[in-house]
Amino acid sequence: VLDWDSARARWNQAHKTSATNFQGLPSKIDSLKEEMDEAGNKVEQCKDQLAADMYNFISKEGDYARHFVSLLEAQADYHRKALAVLEKVLPEIQAHQGKVTPCSASCFACAISALFLLLLLLLSLPVHFAPFPH
To answer: Which residues does the UniProt record annotate as the domain BAR (predicted)?
Structure first.
């Protein structure tokens, strides 16, 4: 479209200049007119291609909608399963959290091995209770 506008503006300018200047360059005006017509043809081709692409997209809208619905169903199923796993393991996690560990009073008073054991336990809980098959 910009090429067509630019070619049309150049043709109009040359046409106005040749009207006031009787020595005008008819060949230049003709070449600008031809350039403008070619750009106009390209614009029409682009419009036709856009219409064909839009028709193609609209004709497949049902397929796109079905894929979108299946995606939403899969997401809902995943979240239902994740909720079920969380509801199952949450009491266990709360029970582990309530237990007194050797470091519960002050970690600085514990042996390093007890700290590593506690760290290992805390790191393994999410992996142990993950909603994925082991």
So the answer is: 1-102
